Write a sequence for this structure.
């Protein structure tokens, strides 16, 4: 996790100094624990989950939670075990958001570095596009993309990446503008280092902190966007274990089976809260200057 | 100021043209628009296909088609909806008032709830009240709208039967008659609250931190030393200055509210543009999607434009030069 990187930035890595640094950093243990548990469930869903999330058990359908040890969180209309579906839902969330975030971060970083370093018309063109994407609510852009590419997980991932890269591009460009006229960059230019090398060896390392902070602050928004798109029925098929879809299914049983919609919603909220907390902590820890920007 | 306004209008115009280009271009990029624009049931019929191509002017060069799209778009003419089998324009004109009502109601709620809570929690800093407000703000930013909506429907509409679970009631169009107003507000409360939840949270945080800063300033301390009552100092001296960032943010988020309503409109079956958009997306109803997106996009750009210009009047620092 990103928290490990933050600690390993330490110069001397003796166990004692590491321990002291961890204490001084005042790590937000509650969010970290929550995220670690969710991550564990996502990766080892097949080991953790008591049932197959797609297995029907019609005799025990719509069973309320906390009634039997076999289905602790109850069952849905076909008797699928809610707890198992929630655990597999964590995996789905990871599978959808992680790759799209990676693509968004890569694309945004490249655009931001190129735009900030080259300046002139390249910068103008790239920033106009960035502003246009940033100017519209993500859900609208995502809907437009899904309309023309069709519904499905892949297209939802494309939609997420297509709406999220711009924030990274904007932020990274700003950072690059702030450092590109500093002595170490100018000297490298005089020395005849190629532009690509300057960007990679001198500029990129200086924006990593910003990148990590922005990533951890954005994850919550991305999870909400993904859940909304699933809820609207644009991503996975009904019946698949995704938290947004579970809430959508629960909507059909509002008063008879409140638990179907309740638990996945709590999970989404808790995960987003944990990421927001962690992001705020990381921002304050790595770069207090950014406090205003958020 | 004139330069600033002109530049800002020009920018808005360019964004709008870019949006129209993307909306129009994506049909062409992803395949043969004549097939897209054809209702699925007639897909196999070549004669219908050719006739359709001619009828929509799809045999003309791309740029001519685009100009045509713009010309018709300005008149809200996006063709016929496949599913409703009537002009998209008529549907839009029916749906726009609902979305605007919802966004305005959401805005009112956000200000009425967010601003006082933010100010009070700054004044009563570190008390239970402050902590409750803070928790609410954190929750409001993290909870997915669709889930909060469903939970509130279960509790308030289902078990307690206090508020209606969906729809606009017997309201249609822009203006309610006197007798419709109670019913209209009754139907607006839940969707407007859910829609504005994240903005209430954001406004509360903004108002709180701005207020804390102002309360710490010399003129507020001086007013207190002078012996003025707390109420006058807080609401007359401090709050007025603390509200500047809140107003800016509020304006920008109104633009967002107009569009953030897709999810809320779907959950509450609110007959607005957002619901129309999703219905279009799920049924491959391209004219309907084009119409809904162009109208939402234009509304968004226009609101942002107006907010920026007003802000330019209010705060000279944002104007260039």
């Amino acid at each position: 996790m990103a928290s490990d990187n933050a600690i390993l930035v330490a110069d001397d890595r003796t166990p004692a100094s590491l321990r002291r640094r961890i204490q001084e950093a005042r790590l937000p243990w509650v969010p970290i624990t929550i995220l670690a548990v969710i991550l564990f469930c996502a990766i080892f869903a097949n080991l953790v989950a008591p049932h197959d999330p797609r297995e029907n058990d019609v005799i025990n359908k719509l069973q309320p939670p906390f009634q039997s040890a076999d289905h602790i969180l109850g069952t849905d209309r076909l008797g699928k075990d809610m707890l198992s579906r929630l655990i597999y839902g964590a995996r789905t969330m990871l599978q959808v958001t992680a790759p799209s975030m990676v693509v968004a971060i890569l694309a945004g970083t490249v655009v931001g570095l190129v735009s900030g370093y080259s300046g002139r018309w390249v910068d103008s063109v790239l920033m106009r596009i960035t502003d246009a994407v940033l100017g519209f609510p993500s859900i609208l852009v995502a809907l437009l993309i899904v309309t023309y590419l069709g519904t499905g997980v892949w297209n939802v991932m494309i939609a997420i990446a297509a709406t999220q890269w711009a924030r990274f591009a904007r932020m990274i460009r700003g950072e690059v503008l702030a450092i590109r006229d500093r002595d170490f960059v100018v000297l490298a230019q005089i020395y005849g280092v190629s532009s690509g090398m300057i960007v990679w060896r001198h500029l990129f390392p200086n924006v990593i902190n910003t990148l990590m902070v922005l990533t951890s602050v954005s994850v919550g928004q991305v999870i909400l966007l993904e859940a909304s798109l699933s809820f609207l029925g644009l991503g996975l098929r009904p019946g698949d274990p995704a938290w947004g879809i579970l809430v959508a299914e629960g909507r059909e049983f509002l008063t008879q089976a409140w638990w179907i919609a309740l638990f996945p919603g709590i999970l989404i909220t808790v995960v987003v809260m944990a990421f927001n907390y962690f992001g705020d902590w990381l921002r304050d820890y790595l770069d207090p200057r950014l406090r205003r920007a958020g | 100021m004139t330069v600033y306004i002109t530049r800002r209008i020009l920018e808005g115009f360019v964004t709008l043209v870019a949006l129209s280009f993307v909306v129009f271009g994506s049909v062409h990029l992803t395949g043969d628009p004549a097939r897209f624009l054809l209702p699925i049931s007639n897909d196999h019929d070549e004669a219908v296909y050719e006739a359709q191509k001619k009828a929509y002017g799809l045999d003309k060069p791309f740029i001519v088609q685009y100009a045509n799209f713009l010309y018709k778009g300005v008149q809200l003419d996006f063709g016929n909806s496949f599913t409703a089998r009537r002009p998209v324009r008529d549907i839009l004109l029916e749906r726009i008032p609902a979305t605007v009502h919802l966004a305005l109601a959401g805005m009112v709620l956000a200000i009425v709830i967010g601003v006082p809570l933010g100010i009070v929690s700054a004044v009563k800093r570190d008390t239970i009240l402050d902590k409750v407000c803070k928790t609410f703000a954190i929750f409001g930013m993290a909870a997915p709208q669709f889930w909060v909506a469903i939970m509130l429907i279960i509790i308030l509409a289902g078990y307690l039967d206090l508020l209606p679970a969906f729809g606009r009631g017997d309201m249609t169009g822009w203006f309610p008659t006197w007798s419709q107003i109670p019913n209209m507000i009754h139907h607006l409360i839940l969707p407007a609250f859910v829609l504005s939840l994240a903005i209430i949270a954001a406004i509360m945080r903004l108002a709180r931190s701005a207020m804390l800063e102002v309360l710490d300033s010399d003129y507020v301390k001086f007013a207190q030393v002078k012996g003025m009552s707390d109420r006058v100092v807080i609401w007359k001296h401090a709050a007025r200055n603390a509200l500047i960032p809140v107003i800016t943010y509020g304006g920008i988020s109104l633009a967002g509210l107009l569009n953030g309503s897709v999810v809320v409109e779907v959950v509450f079956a609110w007959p607005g543009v957002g619901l129309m958009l999703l219905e279009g997306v799920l049924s491959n109803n391209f004219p309907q999607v084009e119409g809904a997106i162009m109208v939402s996009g234009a509304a968004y750009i226009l609101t942002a434009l107006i907010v920026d210009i007003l802000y330019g009047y209010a705060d000279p620092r944002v104007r260039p030069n």
Observations:
- The two ends of chain B are 9 Å apart (CA to CA).
